[in-house]
Design a protein that fits this description.
- One of its GO terms (molecular function) is fatty-acyl-CoA binding.
- InterPro entries: Acyl-CoA-binding_prot_CS (IPR022408), Acyl-CoA-binding_protein (IPR000582), Acyl-CoA-binding_sf (IPR035984), FERM/acyl-CoA-bd_prot_sf (IPR014352), GOLD_dom (IPR009038), GOLD_dom_sf (IPR036598), Golgi-PI4KB_interaction (IPR052269).
- It comes from Culter alburnus.
- The protein is elongated.
- The chain starts with a strand and ends with a strand.
- Among the domains are: about 160 residues, Up-down Bundle (Acyl-CoA Binding Protein), CATH 1.20.80; about 140 residues, Jelly Rolls (Sandwich).
- It has about 525 residues and is of the alpha+beta class.
């Protein structure tokens, strides 16, 4: 038990004031003048307690008990005492100033609650001149064997009597308690709803889990089928590529050796790129052939259906044997006779001048690819002046490359500065003895034909067309982004003739194009 005594300056006017702090409670005996001043405000709480709706006493003299206290104050006795003790410690000397006797009483009641009745043997001796200590012991001893609950109740009653702010203090805590109780109920309700929601979500999750398992099972089955299909396609691709690579191995090897003569690794990389591009082109052409076959089959079915419907209509409209057939311009003719007497077509000439005989020749598909080393390519081509040509605006330049007796494949490479250009490859079936490469410039791809066709009759034009060599398209003319990459390609000789490499700038009315190209053959 800690006791602290504080006194003012002996020479000061307030030297008569003495303060004692016992267990956190401060006792200060007021002077006679201060006591007289305190009597008047102290009487006001007592007068107001009769009208205080939160009075500790029961209604109409009913003795206070736990039920009455909780009904009036909203707290049980233990909670109410705790609030009263807290209010006394925090507000003493600030919000209210109890008298010395009231403080002694409050401290004694607090000791009675904490330690029970006063026991002289258990308490240390107090000095003869310790006035405050003797007063405190005497007040504690005066409580006798007061019960703990009664001491707490007396503490609350005395504090409520001393300070009229205690009741609002308790009321505010009551509101706070009710708010906490409301929040607690809301929290319980929220938890209950959350529990119900969790149960619903658990069931929903279980349902989704079963659906997910079923979906995964189906996806796994689909993946297995897709993987089997992929393996089948990959195996088929390997077989096709093996067959294609067997045909182009020598040509691609020669081309790669010419491009990278000192780097076998670069040669292998280039060969693999060429083989992959060749395969893609082959599959694209195969798809186009299959599509054309399907369209032809569909068209044939439609034509057969039309012919069948025509025959059925003819049979229905044909006259019977006993009836006279209708006449047209005085001539009678049956439908069967008209169908049988179709005009015989004269066989066309099978051999054309300077062209292939018998069945049309089989032309292999070209191989085309690109490579990014455009700067090195153009620097190398610039060393040969004849390999750099200028295609004027609106012009078409045709490079005529005859087949070589010792060659079997033609290779070409080209690039431009800054802008794209149209490019295509054609093959002219002609037995030319001239083996040199020539360049022909025209305003457009159809210029020569238009100029030659002017002023001629249809018969002369037909004879002219008959006398011209046959030309087959190898690579259609399309605009190529050859200002960004080097465009290259190869084609197997279909026979003797002249390759026509067309650089088409007819679509450009304002810009000329510089073309860097190179052509060569391999065995």
């Amino acid at each position: 038990m800690a006791t602290e005594v504080q006194s003012g300056d002996l020479n000061s006017a307030n030297s008569s004031r003495l303060e004692v702090s016992i267990d956190g409670l401060t006792l200060s005996p007021d002077s006679e003048g201060e006591q007289e001043q305190a009597e008047t405000p102290a009487a006001r709480p007592a007068e107001q307690s009769a009208d205080n709706p939160l009075s500790v006493d029961g209604e109409e003299g009913e003795p206070a008990n736990s039920a009455t206290i909780e009904k009036k104050w909203g707290f049980d006795l233990v909670e109410l005492y705790g609030l009263a003790l807290r209010f006394f410690k925090e507000k003493d000397g600030k919000a209210f100033h109890p008298t010395y006797e009231d403080k002694l009483r409050l401290v004694a009641l607090h000791k009675q609650v904490l330690q029970g009745p006063y026991n002289p043997d258990a308490s240390p001796e107090v000095g003869f001149f310790d006035v405050l200590g003797n007063d405190r012991r005497r007040e504690w001893a005066s409580l006798g064997n007061m019960e703990k609950d009664e001491a707490m109740l007396e503490f609350v009653k005395l504090l409520n009597k001393c300070c009229n702010l205690f009741a609002p203090f308790v009321a505010s805590h009551k509101i706070e308690k009710e708010e906490q109780e409301r929040k607690r109920r809301e929290e319980e309700e929220r938890r209950r709803r959350e529990e119900e929601e969790r149960e619903r979500l658990r069931q929903e999750e279980e349902r989704r889990r079963r659906e997910e398992e079923e979906r995964l099972r189906r996806e796994e089955e689909e993946r297995r089928q897709v993987e089997e299909e992929r393996l089948r396609v990959e195996q088929q691709k390997q077989q096709i590529m093996a067959a294609l690579n067997a045909q182009t191995a020598v040509q691609f090897q020669q081309y790669a050796a010419q491009q990278y003569p000192d780097s076998p690794e670069q040669q292998l990389i280039l060969i693999r790129q060429l083989q992959e591009q060749h395969y893609q082109q082959y599959m694209q052409q195969l798809y186009q052939v299959q599509l054309a076959q399907q369209q032809a089959a569909l068209q044939k079915q439609q034509e057969d259906a039309i012919v069948l419907s025509t025959l059925e209509a003819s049979e229905v409209s044909a006259p019977s044997s006993g009836e006279e057939a209708p006449t047209l311009n005085g001539q009678a003719e049956s439908t069967a006779d008209s169908l049988e007497r179709e005009p015989d077509l004269e066989p066309a000439d099978e051999v054309t001048e300077n062209g292939p005989t018998d069945s049309p020749p089989v032309i292999a598909a070209p191989s085309m690819w690109t490579r990014p080393q455009i700067k090195d390519f153009k620097e190398k081509i610039r060393q040969d002046v004849d390999s750099v040509i200028t295609v004027g605006r609106g012009e078409v330049v045709t490079v005529r490359v005859p087949t070589h007796e010792e060659g079997s494949y033609l290779f070409w490479e080209f690039a431009t500065d800054y802008y794209d250009i149209g490019f295509g490859v054609f093959f002219e079936w002609t037995d030319s003895t001239n083996a040199s490469v020539s360049v022909h410039v025209s305003e457009s791809s159809d210029e020569d034909e238009d100029e030659e066709g002017e002023g001629q009759s249809e018969e002369d034009k037909a004879k002219k067309e008959t006398g011209k060599p046959q030309v087959d398209e190898i690579v259609p003319v399309y605009r190529r982004d050859c200002h960004e990459e080097v465009y290259a390609g190869s084609h197997q000789y279909p026979g003797r003739g002249i390759y026509l490499l067309k650089f088409d700038n007819s679509y450009s009315l304002w810009r000329s194009k510089t073309v860097y190209y190179r052509v060569y053959y391999t065995r």
